[in-house]
Amino acid sequence: MNDKIPAPMFWISMNAPAESVYIPFAVAPMPEAYNKADRTKFDLEKAWWISQQVTMLTRGYYSALQPEVLETAKKYEKQSMELVEKSKGQSAEEFAETLRENAEKTLADWRNLYGNLLIVHDGDHHIDYDEAHRPKADNVEKY
Questions:
Q1: Is the pTM of the predicted complex or chain greater than 0.85?
Q2: How confident is the model over 14-23, as a mean pLDDT?
Q3: ∠ CA 44-82-29, rounded to 5°
Q4: Percent of the chain having pLDDT more than 90?
Q5: Worst-scoring range by mean pLDDT, 13-27, 59-73, 116-130?
Q6: In 3D, which of 27, 22, 137, 12 has the Cα closest to residue 92?
Q7: How many Å apart are CA 51 and CA 38, to the nearest integer?
Q8: Domain regions of the chain by residue span
Q9: Can you tell me the distance from the alpha carbon of 103 to that of 100, in angstroms, rounded to the nearest whole number?
Q10: Do the beta carbons of residue 10 and residue 27 sit within 8 Å?
Q11: pLDDT tens for residues 36-55?
Q12: C-alpha neighbours within 13 Å on the C-beta side of residue 33
């Protein structure tokens, strides 16, 4: 194999745009976090579950969170594209390793995004239900 031919790669995203991030990585070997996720058992070591957390939170509060999630995804996707361009001269093995490291770092940052979204928005009470969906408070008269 020619040293200047990049390793086979593809972009992966677990969910819809504005809910997830596209990450390039080498096809083989795949980073463990992306390999064989069991969707019946919650496992924060797997990319699918990490992505699902951000997706479900974003869907629940779409208008409040979508702009921030989309902006974060664009930032990581841009960084990944720049890394791919910068690394094209590497050997196939080095290129594959560069992509795996980027995929693992991006996934770790995406894992932290979920908690950050909760802290920034819900911790300061910026996320709230629509008044039409808020249950009426009943005063307790007796026990």
A1: no
A2: 71
A3: 45
A4: 26
A5: 116-130
A6: 27
A7: 14
A8: 9-26+44-124
A9: 5
A10: yes
A11: 888 889 998 888 888 888 88
A12: 24
